[in-house]
Design a protein that fits this description.
Blueprint (H helix, E strand, L loop, with lengths): L4 E11 L5 H11 L3 E7 L2 E9 H13 L6 E10 L7 E3 L20 H7 L43 H7 L21 E5 L2 E5 H13 L4 E4 L4 E6 L3 H11 L7 E3 L3 H4 L3 E2 L2 H7 L6 E6 L15 E5 L4 H7 L9 E5 L11 H8 L5 E5 L11 E5 L2 E6 L9 E2 L7 E3 L9 E4 L2 E4 L9 H17 L6 E5 L5 H13 L3 E4 L1 H12 L8 E11 L5 E10 L2 E8 L2 E4 L2 H5 L1 H11 L9 H5 L2 H13 L3 E4 L2 H11 L11 H9 L11 E3 L2 E3 L1 H12 L4 H27 L3 E5 L6 H13 L3 E3 L11 H11 L3
Parallel strand pairs: 2-5, 8-15, 10-13, 12-16, 19-22, 22-23, 24-31, 26-30, 31-32
Antiparallel strand pairs: 1-3, 1-4, 2-3, 6-7, 6-15, 8-9, 9-14, 10-14, 11-12, 12-13, 16-17, 18-21, 19-20, 20-21, 24-25, 25-26, 27-28, 29-30
Helix pairs in contact: 13-23, 15-18, 18-19, 20-21, 21-22
Length: about 750
């Protein structure tokens, strides 16, 4: 009987290179006795498959329903073709296609199989710090170009030894075409440098590094996407010295533990937190701190949370391996001076980090792209990103409708830029605050690399309205030089659009937007930040906003919340009474100068900022009069809040203005009557949540809109977020909040891209 033969041509786009896709296809075809071929291209993976109809159908179903764990199929095109005379299934050489592109996998934490081999004395890669396979290891940080093949990575300078070559070329091996594959014979190695000279290499370097950490020293460690500065997090002298050297007064340090057993000494672990911590990205996760933890307070001053990650490279596992008398939790903070970009080039690291570190543990594997650690937390049992970088970038956001190729330059703080092409929005890794030349240079280099990697030539450029943002200046300059249309996007409109895109909102219908942050240039030239909008991708209306208060002296008010408190009191017509904490916090000369500024409107811009409103509240009750990092006053105000308090203060709605004068009066009365700071904080939070619900109810009555998008850095406040979401749901609203990109300015570029991509130019 003649066999029922059929054949298909299959073209797949998505995360399908560097994730074991070709060996998966090869072994699936082999198991089903099918013939044909598979190959990588510059746009994805192509397959031709021949065989009995039932087997081909099974192949197709398995391919679509059970691809490799790290793969993501975004589009698949299946075309029937004539069966050919192939006698076997093979993997063809990759095919470069001019102008084509595909997503690149983010870096992936070390997998369980590699971990087992790492600690197996019988394995030839026993204790090799750069062990990896198809299922794990560096990706984005080493790739120079596509297709993702070894010659296009920073591993090109490490020729494979015969044993590694055999694994690399065997489709049945876990390391088949794992581009970073290496071993102690042919791969990168460790070097320990102290006092400006090499003191050890290989395993000896590791032993000396561990001794440094045990003895309370500060170590610069070259990792996956750059350098870390590490020390014993339970050693007060080491942590304080690191703060002093980094010039980082209060901002919390990231921490690392070896495993769950170590984590249980320091943090309250929920199943959702643990799942996020152990996901392939292995991000920093924010945990509630246990009172029994011996992490020194200076590691995270005035915080009830700790940002902790697990080892995500074999080097980290070896460095933190438990032993008697060895610390069980470590500071593992970015290798930089405060506010500078993370060091990733060895020569630059020696220059910048030598004053900060007692020694260097480095390796000779080059890093192509510097990438900071990602920071996430859980909310309602889902991921809630704070910083989207290693392990996530440049994994694109899939957009259901096609938008033109463009560049969105992003914001000034927490900068992330975005490129679009076809149905993809490629958000960059975390660039940082655009406050110095080094960060700006990283921004420019990142844009050039992403455009080369994804074959993008922008047809339009989007940027923030603020004329003095470095990202905006870049956009203007490039627009003029290359004659590319420029789209300026209002900051809070971008927040709204980003939240919609994050929730795969495909409609042009408007929603209510609760866009709350510290600073955003308004279309009237003022500084916005307490905004209730109605709109979508194509436009917005400003329905309500916090009543303007003067930002006297500009950024000095951000650094000194006490000044912001007095600005708010002045705006509300309330006296600066001598017993109030913000009055006491400023000397008489500064108060006089501030009063003169306010009376004569000298160097004083109007702001509706909710971030500055929180700063003012923190200073008013004597909690934080001066800030050493962005958002500190608000973060500490949240940290002390009484979770059980239900009372609130009044805020008056007058037309489109939200007037806080009654709140300040009530809060001062409570403070004078001796109400505790935790209760004062809780009542303040409750007041904001209640006010926002009132605004939404009014707007639903006017417009019948039931969807509410929450975006902006203020929504990193989990008390405010939880109470507002719960009340919105209780009132029958459908809240939309962030899951895949941060709610802070790390989402702005995505919003800019969606708005600019929707416009007809």
């Amino acid at each position: 009987m003649k066999q029922d033969l059929t054949a298909l041509r299959i073209e797949i786009c998505g995360i399908v290179q560097g994730v074991g896709f070709r060996p998966f296809v090869y072994n699936l075809a082999d198991r089903l006795n099918l013939t044909g071929w598979v190959r990588n291209t510059s746009s994805g993976v192509e397959i031709e498959i021949n065989g009995e109809s039932q087997a081909v159908q099974s192949f197709q179903q398995e391919l679509q329903n059970h691809p490799p764990v790290l793969a993501r199929i975004d589009t698949i095109l299946i075309t029937p073709i004539q069966p050919n005379n192939a006698t076997r299934f093979e993997i063809l050489t990759s095919q470069a296609q001019p102008g084509q592109f595909l997503p690149v996998s983010p870096d992936v934490s070390v997998c369980p199989d590699c971990q087992r081999e790492l600690f197996d004395p019988k394995d030839r890669r026993y204790r090799y710090p750069f062990i990896n396979c198809t299922n794990c290891g560096p990706r984005f940080t080493i790739v120079k170009d596509i297709p993702y093949d070894r010659p296009n990575t920073t591993m090109a300078g490490f020729p494979l030894c015969p044993d590694c070559r055999k694994e690399y070329e065997n489709p049945h091996d876990r390391r088949f075409h794992a581009q970073p594959v290496a071993c102690p014979v042919c791969g990168p190695h460790l070097t320990m440098i102290a006092g400006g000279r090499i003191v050890a290499s290989h395993e000896d370097a590791l032993h000396i590094a561990r001794k440094y950490l045990k003895d309370g020293k500060i170590l610069a460690i070259k990792g996956l996407g750059g350098y870390h500065l590490a020390c014993d997090a339970a050693n007060p002298a080491a942590v304080i010295e690191l703060r002093k050297r980094k010039k980082r007064s209060d901002k919390p340090f990231a921490l690392m533990v070896f495993d769950r057993a170590a984590l249980e000494h320091h943090a309250l672990i929920t199943p959702e937190d643990w799942a996020l911590l152990t996901s392939p990205a292995h991000p920093i996760v924010l945990f509630d701190k246990l009172t029994s933890s011996d992490v020194v307070p200076d590691a995270a001053p005035n915080q009830h949370t700790l940002g902790i990650m697990l080892p995500y490279t074999p080097l980290h596992l070896l460095l933190l391996e438990p032993a008697p008398g060895f610390p069980n939790i470590f500071v593992m903070t970015s290798g930089n001076l405060s506010e500078e970009p993370i060091a990733y080039d060895d020569e630059d690291a020696f220059t910048r980090l030598s004053p900060l570190a007692d020694a260097f543990l480095l390796n000779n594997r080059p890093i192509q792209t510097r990438v900071d650690d990602s920071v996430v937390r859980t909310f309602h049992k889902q991921s809630y990103p704070i910083r989207r970088s290693r392990g996530y970038a440049p994994d694109p956001i899939f957009i259901s409708r096609e938008i033109p190729p463009l560049l969105a330059a992003g914001a000034e703080l927490k900068n992330v830029f975005c490129h679009t092409r076809d149905h993809y929005a490629f958000l960059s890794h975390h660039i940082g605050d655009m406050e110095n030349f080094e960060t700006y240079q990283s921004f420019e280099e990142g844009i050039a690399h992403m455009e080369r990697l994804f074959r993008i030539q922008p047809e339009r450029i989007a940027c923030d309205l603020h004329p003095n943002y470095l990202a905006t200046r870049y956009a203007h300059q490039r627009s003029q030089q290359e004659n590319i249309p420029l789209v300026e996007v209002q900051h809070h409109h971008a927040h709204l659009a980003a939240c919609l895109a994050d929730n795969q909102w495909d409609s042009l219908d408007p929603v209510i937007g609760l866009c709350l942050d510290g600073t955003g240039y308004g279309s009237d030239g003022s500084i916005w930040g307490g905004e209730v909008l109605v709109g979508g991708y194509s436009g917005f209306q400003r329905a309500f906003h916090m009543k303007y208060a003067p930002l006297a002296g500009g950024d000095i008010c951000i650094r000194k919340p006490a000044r912001m408190a007095l600005c708010h009191l002045w705006s509300a017509g309330l006296d600066w009474e001598a017993d109030l904490p913000p009055v006491k916090a400023l000397c008489s000369e500064e108060r006089l100068a501030l009063h003169t500024q306010l009376e004569h409107q000298i160097n004083s811009v109007a702001t509706s900022s909710m971030g500055r409103f929180f700063d003012a509240a923190s200073a008013l009750i004597g909690l934080r009069s001066e800030a050493t990092y962005e958002g500190q006053a608000a973060i500490e105000l949240e940290a002390i809040a009484d979770r059980d308090e239900i009372n609130y203060y009044p805020v008056e709605i007058i037309g489109d203005l939200l007037d806080p004068a009654p709140l300040w009066q009530s809060m001062i009365m409570d403070w004078r009557s001796g109400i505790s700071l935790p209760v004062l904080s809780a009542r303040f939070h409750n007041s904001i949540s209640r006010l926002l619900i009132q605004c939404c109810l009014i707007l639903r009555e006017r417009t019948s809109i039931n969807q509410v998008a929450l975006s902006g850095g203020v929504w990193q406040n989990m008390i405010l977020l939880a109470r507002t979401i719960d009340q919105l749901e209780h009132m029958g609203f459908k809240p939309l909040y962030h899951h895949r990109v941060p709610t802070n300015d790390g989402c702005i570029a995505l919003g800019q891209a969606m708005i600019a991509g929707t416009m007809n130019i």
